[in-house]
Design brief:
mainly alpha; two-stranded antiparallel ribbon; about 70 residues
Length: about 70
Amino acid sequence: MKMNNNGYYSIKNNAVIELKSHLFRTYSYIMSKDYNQEGVFFGQARMAKDLKVCVRTIQRHIQELK
């Protein structure tokens, strides 16, 4: 996922097609927080709170996305 000059993100087609909806949601969240492609510095607890899921769910999603 990459931000363009207008503040919108472009997502690779295979991510949209191949990922299950719950994984796509987590993937989209992570990628939207990766400003300037420097990595995401939010902890799993913050991600879980923002996505309204438990930390264990975030851990499973990250493991599946790897």
